[in-house]
Design brief:
Elements lengths: L1 H21 L5 E3 L5 H14 L4 E3 L6 E5 L2 E8 L6 E9 L7 H14 L4 E5 L2 E10 L2 E3 H22 L6 H4 L1
Antiparallel strand pairs: 1-8, 2-3, 3-4, 4-5, 5-7, 6-7
Length: about 170
């Protein structure tokens, strides 16, 4: 009987410890209002403090984050009432000999086959645009998971592009 009571107390203590950890604060930021420049600075600081290479972009409401040799433009969009988001953009240069018609065909194919982002041709490059929504609070883990997800999309882009290479990404 004593053994069962001790085991039950141990389980209760373990359960309470687990519940206490659920409420522990993750590294993150609270973004309210509608100031995109302040939000970009807060996101940049959060990532930089975590050791992620970042730098400001030309637009004050955006920043560049660098992972695995790839630049991603992040632009926080805040709304006073409602759903906030971070818009991510990546550009891909054309392969040698590939021009706008090949990039347009690839963008159409990617939009048809991948339901994860928008693809278009702009400035002589293929551009991918995706977003991650949140409400006022964004944790470091959520942001890093979003960047990992973008890397996964890039793997899918590579697979589609390998069929008729139009990107420098898959010909190097």
């Amino acid at each position: 009987m004593v053994r069962q009571a001790t085991a039950a107390m141990g389980c209760l203590a373990l359960l309470l410890t687990g519940c206490a950890n659920l409420g522990s604060e993750q590294a993150g930021i609270t973004l309210t209002g509608s100031d995109g420049a302040a939000a970009a600075l807060a996101v940049r600081t959060l990532l930089a403090d975590a050791g992620q290479p970042v730098e400001p972009a030309a637009a004050p409401s955006s920043l560049f984050v660098y992972r695995q040799g790839r630049a991603t433009l992040l632009s926080p969009v805040l709304q006073e009432q409602g759903l906030d988001r971070i818009i991510a953009s990546r550009s891909y240069a054309p392969a040698a000999g590939a021009g706008e018609p090949e990039l347009e065909a690839l963008a159409l194919e990617l939009n048809r086959r991948l339901n994860v982002a928008g693809f278009k041709v702009s400035g002589g490059a293929l551009v991918m645009v995706a977003n991650r929504t949140f409400v006022d609070r964004l944790t470091l883990d959520e942001l890093l998971d979003f960047l990992d997800w973008l890397d996964t999309i890039e793997l899918a882009i590579r697979r589609v592009d390998q069929e008729r290479p139009a990107l420098l990404l898959t010909t190097t």
